[in-house]
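Mods, move this if it's the wrong board.
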Amino acid sequence: MEKFENSLQGSRLRLVVAKNPRISYNLEGMNRCSQCGLPKPESDFHEDSKKRSKKRSTCAECRSKAYFKRRYPIPCASCKEHRRLAFNGVCVECLESQGLRVCKTCNNMLLKHLHFYGHRQVCTACLNMKLKQKSLEIPQHFDPVLEKVVESMRARGLLPAVASHSQAEVVDGAVPDQSE
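Not the wrong board. Structure tokens:
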């Protein structure tokens, strides 16, 4: 009877040991993740100089999931992953896979192949508006060659000495007349 109980206990112990995630298998180059419990190759674990084995106990995939869960607590409505969400509650990756993108300037959701250049996050309408505003601006300083000519003319006394000009006074690089 004792032998039967011992063998029964031994088989139970073997079953418990096989299901215990802390028991490591003798597979060379494999580690078991402490979070998901799956045996994975050592290359899937980041380095940790404080550990005796020089590897972290959780795999890179589990660490990444934990990071995104901490950083973005609300999951995507479409894929249920914790990622950066657009204003409609869907992550940027899901929108990209559907062919959509959100403009960072006007917050409109537009078709990425029609309204965006390459990987830009600003739509073509906002980009064109920004370029038009930039072309209408008056430059704050003269061309360097023209500035040297004006300085040499002032040194010879051909032009009056002027302290500074505002943008409204300077038109097309000409110095306003101070004879007023």
